[in-house]
Amino acid sequence: MKRIGILTGGGDCSGLNAVIRAVTRSAVIHHQARIIGFEKGFEGMIYNLWQELTIENTRELLTLGGTLLGSSNKGDPFHFRERDADGKVVTHDFSARAKENFEKLELDGLIAVGGEGTLEIAYKFFQMGLPVVGVPKTIDNDLSGTEYSFGFQTAVQVACDALDRLHTTGKSHQRVMILEVMGRSAGWIALEAGISGGAHIILLPEIPFSIEAVLNKIRARDSEGHPFTVIVIAEGATEVGGSVMIQKKAENRLQGTDLLGGVGHWLANEIEDKIPHEVRCTVLGYTQRGGTPNAFDRILGTRLGAFAVRALAEKEFGHMVSFRPPELKLVPLAELAGKVRRITSENQLLQCAEDIGVSLGR
Ligand code: F6P
């Protein structure tokens, strides 16, 4: 294994740099390989943008948020999205060009670090004959095939810290404090942050909520002598019979996915005139994705990166490295397509939340 490529695609996430550093170090130390870091995800393959990674230039990356290589949500070479002169989004198929650029670099393998979209593209290139290994990345923790992906625990900590702070304001002002967190179709951040941050109500995309149940919990707390309530809601949560709140439709975005958001403020408006409390909503947004990874995500990113190099060396192409505690395993990319890892009704954390009196809005 003489030369390998690596790219980071999709939204940024704490721990990406830990993966880049681990890939570089293990490929250099154990294979004396040269590492080509494609810039801006798959865009780097399309436009031949790359930089060579060395142990020297990846030093001190472990603690840094973001990605040294840059990322791009729009860089799907099979449906590359650009705006035309009128600002309309148009798509092109640049996959053949990206493959050709990859082949010209004479790489023995590509490590694609990313979420569902990136791994789906990686799989398509694998089917076209490229030697690809995937590394799972998502703060939402909704990728199937892996129990955890790096970035998630850091996001949970950010949300937990926010809930701690909202508690003090809520209690001081006798308010209902709503925290909207990320989580499109899976509510892992809301659930873990809600339990760790002592939220009284946790609203998840998996369990449509009723306004009445939310009000009942607030009123129950009032009558128990606790006239404030802290609610955490995932951006993809919906009222029973309602639909997901979208800020910007996919067709108007280069990312090609709907930009969610707004359900927290909507909920605040729905309940404020029905209770004797002021209601405030905080949207945590991108603070969950940026910044220094916590120790867990540094370790997981490092393990996944080093394991991906092993997988390439052993020619386990077409696989994603995955974390099945306590071990790392390889999962065929083919098995991941279109599957989202959502919270099931048997999930013990969900049961735990209800056991300790947290309302799930049902
Ligand atoms: O990484 C996934 C995610 O965090 C979602 O929860 C969120 O809806 C999305 O990113 C928004 O990202 P962007 O604005 O970069 O498309």
Structure description:
With 362 residues, the chain is of the alpha/beta class. It folds into 2 domains: 3-150 and 293-335, Rossmann fold (3-Layer(aba) Sandwich), CATH 3.40.50; 154-289, Phosphofructokinase domain (Rossmann fold, 3-Layer(aba) Sandwich). The protein contains 10 helices and 15 strands. The chain has helices spanning 16-31, 43-47, 95-104, 116-127, 152-173, 188-196, 211-223, 263-272, 295-313, 348-355, and strands spanning 3-8, 34-38, 50-53, 80-83, 89-92, 109-114, 132-136, 176-181, 201-203, 229-234, 246-248, 259-260, 279-283, 319-324, 327-332. The strands form 4 sheets. Strands 3-2-1-6-7-14-15 form a 7-stranded mixed beta sheet, sandwiched between helices. A 4-stranded parallel beta sheet has the order 9-10-8-13, sandwiched between helices. A hairpin with a 5-residue loop joins strand 4 and strand 5. Helix 1 (16-31) packs parallel to helix 9 (295-313) and helix 5 crosses helix 6. The mean pLDDT is 96.
